[in-house]
Amino acid sequence: MARYLAQIIVMGVQVVGRAFARALQQEIAASQAAAQARGSAGQHSAAAATSITGMSLQEAQQILNISTLTPEEIQTNYDHLFKVNDKTVGGSFYLQSKVVRAKERLDEEVSIQTEQPNQKSQ
Q1: DSSP 81
Q2: Residue 1, domain extent
Q3: pTM (predicted TM-score)
Q4: How far apart are CA 42 and CA 50, in angstroms?
Q5: CB 102 within 8 A of CB 60
Q6: What topology does the record note for this protein and the membrane (predicted)?
């Protein structure tokens, strides 16, 4: 009886092991296909910036009310919104943190855009 139980356990572990190995191979193939579909290095940089800050470029532009990516406009809108949402003047810490994250995302996008012409010229 114990021998049959041991055989059933071993067979179950083998089945689960094979299924896990197949699932892992499929996941690796899918991630490689997704990486190839994403395209050039510029898109990788933007996607990386989005995943780091947790905010898309459009969302950051909407939060800071930015139409063009100029450092001066970003800084002036950031300063105003940061002061308005300061907790000491009755603002919201949550909104203030969103403003900070939006500025970080836009600053990252500006640095990506300034790096791309430098890479193309080299």
Answers
A1: H
A2: 1-40
A3: 0.58
A4: 13
A5: yes
A6: Peripheral membrane protein
